Amino acid sequence: DAGVIQSPxxxxxxxxxxxxxxxxxxxxxxYLFWYRQTMMRGLExxxxxxxxxxxxxxxxxxxxxxxKMPNASFSTLKIQPSEPRDSAVYFCAxxxxxxxxxxxxxxxxxxxxxxxx
Amino acid sequence: xxEVEQNSGPLSVxxxxxxxxxxTYSDRGSQSFFWYRQYSGKSPELIMFIYSNGDxxxxxxxxxxxxxxxxVSLLIxxxxxxxxxxxxxxxxxxxxxxxxxxxxxxxxxxxxP
Lengths: 117, 113
Description:
In chain A, 0% of the residues lie in helices and 53% in strands. Chain A is mainly β and 117 residues long.
């Protein structure tokens, strides 16, 4: 398996522009997570899906952020309009939960490094 | 107060020594705990998970869980320079939030030759 795939790997944009980050989870995984990591705030959960349905979006910072999962193999995180304070590394992770086994593990993608100027 | 707190670090140990990383958590509903390692510029990767009280050993790594004290630790024996990384402790929420990991802020470990 190729693991979790994210694109783009790097994104540089100007304030006010729309940014779309993409994620393909590991095949067969029914949970998908979007995280943001900064030096100041560490690794923060933004939103997660179970079977394509958003379960908890309490970490989404504001209405400028939105996430969708139209099918089991694709998810997007959109920022519109982007601001310099959105600059961070955004990780997508996927997992499948089977109690008491290794399959509780979340596998992270390589991340998208976003810089908003 | 963060739900998962790690000893702030950074932690520096000589090669061959034991590195001890500690974590406390506030959510008594948390079922399982995970230690992730993150090299600079890379994504987190799982090194250990534990869900029962006591110790769990995997090679040079030992995870310890004490649910009564709400305490999780990771010991790295015979530390190597390649162990230098940020170590993230995470708790898996129970109940209706099952599936959600809450991460600590991480501890930077440096193993010097």
